[in-house]
Amino acid sequence: MKALRKIEEKPGFVLVDVPEPSPDLREVKIRVLRTGICGTDLHIQSWDAWASKTIKVPITPGHEFSGTVVEVGAEVTSVKVGDFVSGEGHIVCNLCRNCRAGRRHLCMNTVGIGVNRDGAFAEFICMPESNVWKHEAGMDPDLAAIFDPLGNAVHVALSFPLVGEDVLITGAGPIGIMAAQVARFAGARYIVITDISEDRLTLARSMGVDIAVNVLHENLGDVMKTLGMTEGFDVAFEMSGSPAALPQILEFVGHGARVALLGLPSKPIEIDWAKVITNMVTIKGIYGREMFETWYAMTAMIKKGLDISPVITHKMRYTDWEEAFRIASMSNAGKIVLDWS
Predict the structure, then answer these.
(1) Which residues does the annotation mark as catalytic?
(2) Domains contained in the chain, CATH given
(3) What tens digit of pLDDT does each residue of 266-315 get?
(4) How deeply is 277 buried, as exposed, middle or buried, from its count of CB atoms within 10 A (0-12, 13-18, 19+)?
(5) Strand 27-36 relative to strand 124-128: parallel, antiparallel, unpaired?
(6) Helix (H, G, I), strand (E, B) or coil at 150
(7) 272: Cβ–Cβ under 8 A, 6 or more apart, which residues?
(8) How would you classify the pairing of strands 167-170 and 111-112?
(9) What is the helix, strand, coil percentage profile of the chain, to 5?
(10) DSSP assignment of 114-135, as one string?
(11) Are strands 84-87 and 64-72 parallel, antiparallel or unpaired?
(12) pTM for this structure?
């Protein structure tokens, strides 16, 4: 089969032929139809400091995908050949304290598909039955391929009550924009998103945010006045990883505000902890999805009309992966989906 592989400890991938995987007793073999390119994949492709200390080569990256089940292990009972599926990319141990308490997303022994074991940038992938998510009939394969990052957005957005709340989102990348859509669907009053890319801000405006702010040229204080806000934002999502974002959030949220952090900063961030304490601000770190409550929530919202499809700005053949990664590395693209069919 064809697979996009990292075979050396240096920038780049190679598209090569490798043997097809075979499922273990409790694994499922999936014919990959679509894959999404994630920021994690860009880190691996560029071989930055995180990748060099995390990734063991050779490996097939990729963890956002959709496909069709073609083979199941002898002990698999809940999935059958022909099912159209996606997969939860975090494989947990089921034995640590958090797993046994039903908090699998907090497993300290998590193994990441496409990070710690071969992933979905290939024609076939094998994964545990317990990580397979079956889609209902009629689900678009492009949309199904980005359920993983949609899950990140849903996990962030549904961390706090949103009905009637004013929401600030820093970072208008695909997950930030999807989080804005979820916040709107969940009943937020005003949604303001910030970035420095005019292309991404334009995309955010087209998907229904109230105001998209270029922080290089506009001030959030002025935006609040325009909206008639007097007490600061109630909820904030930090999606950019910019070291400047969290201090900015703390400047413009109100007393008792709740802040969810998903963006991974490239360096330590200095913030005013006295303000966090005296303003009684809650800060929550988010990583991945709450398995599998998030999958149920996003499936239900999609079924009831949540439309995040415009966030997919490019659809390309897997053989054009080099151009796809070039586009993904730029700040003007939304989600990029590769076609493996």
Answers:
(1) 40, 43
(2) 2-146+308-339 (3.90.180.10), 153-285 (3.40.50.720)
(3) 788 999 999 999 999 999 999 999 999 999 999 999 999 999 999 999 99
(4) exposed
(5) antiparallel
(6) helix
(7) 247, 250
(8) unpaired
(9) 30, 25, 40
(10) TTTB--SSBSEEEEEGGGEEEP
(11) antiparallel
(12) 0.93
